[in-house]
């Protein structure tokens, strides 16, 4: 029995649970950074729980996962509008030609955010954080007692599936500027990244460089998506009546044009990076999945044995290693 790895996964799960517990109070208080960090922590837990709980007896992983999902959904109602307000603040400081339009859109978004924050608090109240903590603790306890490591196979399968989905999304998006298809690439990349982070945190060293690579692409696509969301709010304000305020309409048109240009620029950067991003599924299959199947310590031993066998000439009449071990 290799008790070190199950112990490491137990500590990993406990760390992720503590991160969520730390960020929730700030999120409930309305702090935008608290909402963001709490949502990320909940997503990482949603990735870790079903994988690490695979094949473990006597735990409440499925129930914990449902509660975590409720948290993620509740926090998401506000997070997107927080990002929109942040972009509007950037535009207000960098541009003067459409500052009145920025203020008009900001007023609209703030009203939307206030309504969604009320909804978020109502949904968070229905999540029993103490009960969630106990269910996560049951999974952690089961990990400590585990003899086998079925989570490795589960994570490998998940990474392969998500890699294929990312490749399919990239192929579907092509070179055209299609917000919905680009959003599908972003979502697929995000889900794959959380799986790779779990692999890296559990000791798979080959996953860490891929996390950094996919995060760059995800940040770029995330910014593109955030600007596209801003455009929907600009369009909503444009559709509202502005009697006798022609200059406001002109400013809104300038703002929309400016945001659209930024979207086109980011799309060009994505198209240039897509071929490298498309190689990720094959890299995961060749480097990450084998290391998950054979942990680093064991993998080094296998590699050393192979190198030794290559360098050592076989004496005449020697028995091949597989035959000597009964073909195991």
Overview of this protein structure:
This protein has helices at 4-28, 32-52, 61-94, 99-125, 129-145, 150-173, 179-201, 207-239, 246-278, 280-293, 296-311, 321-324. It is mainly alpha-helical and 328 residues long. Helix 1 runs antiparallel to helix 5, helix 3 (61-94) packs across helix 5 (129-145) and helix 8 packs antiparallel against helix 9. The protein is flat, with a radius of gyration of 25 Å. Mean pLDDT is 84; it is low at 1-6 and 297-328.
Rg over CA atoms: 25 Å
Distance between the termini: 19 Å
**What share of the residues does DSSP label as strand, in percent?**
under 5%
Low-confidence stretches: 1-6, 297-328
Mean pLDDT: 84
Helix content estimate: over 70%
Rough shape?
A: flat
- Tally of helical segments: 12
Count of DSSP E strands? 0
Features:
single chain, 328 residues, mainly alpha, 12 helices, 83% helix, disordered N terminus
Condensed summary:
The protein is mostly helical and 328 residues long.
């Amino acid at each position: 029995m290799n008790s070190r790895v199950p112990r490491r996964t137990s500590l990993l799960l406990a760390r992720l649970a503590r991160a969520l517990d730390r960020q929730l109070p700030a999120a409930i208080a309305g702090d935008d950074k608290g909402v963001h960090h709490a949502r990320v922590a909940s997503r990482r837990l949603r990735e870790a729980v079903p994988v690490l709980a695979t094949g473990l007896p006597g735990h409440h992983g499925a129930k914990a996962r449902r509660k975590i999902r409720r948290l993620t959904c509740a926090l998401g109602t506000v997070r997107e509008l927080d990002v929109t307000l942040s972009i509007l603040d950037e535009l207000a400081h960098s541009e003067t030609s459409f500052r009145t339009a920025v203020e008009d859109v900001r007023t609209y978004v703030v009203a939307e955010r206030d309504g969604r924050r009320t909804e978020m608090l109502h949904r968070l109240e229905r999540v029993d954080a103490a009960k969630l903590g106990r269910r996560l603790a049951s999974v952690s306890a089961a990990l400590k007692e585990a003899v086998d490591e079925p989570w490795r196979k589960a994570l490998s399968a998940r990474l392969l599936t998500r890699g294929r989905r990312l490749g399919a999304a990239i192929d579907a998006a092509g070179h055209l500027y299609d917000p919905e298809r680009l959003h599908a690439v972003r979502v697929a990349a995000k889900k794959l990244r959380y799986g790779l982070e779990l692999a890296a945190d559990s000791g798979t060293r080959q996953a860490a460089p891929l996390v950094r690579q996919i995060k760059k692409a995800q940040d770029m696509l995330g910014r593109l998506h955030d600007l596209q969301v801003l455009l929907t709010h600009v369009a909503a304000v444009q559709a509202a009546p502005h009697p006798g305020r022609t200059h406001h309409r002109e400013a809104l048109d300038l703002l929309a044009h400016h945001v659209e240009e930024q979207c086109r620029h980011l799309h060009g950067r994505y198209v240039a990076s897509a071929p490298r991003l498309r190689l990720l599924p094959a890299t995961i299959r060749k480097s990450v999945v084998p290391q998950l199947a054979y942990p680093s310590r064991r993998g080094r031993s296998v590699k050393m044995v192979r190198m030794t066998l290559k360098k050592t000439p076989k004496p005449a009449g020697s028995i091949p290693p597989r035959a000597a071990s009964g073909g195991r």
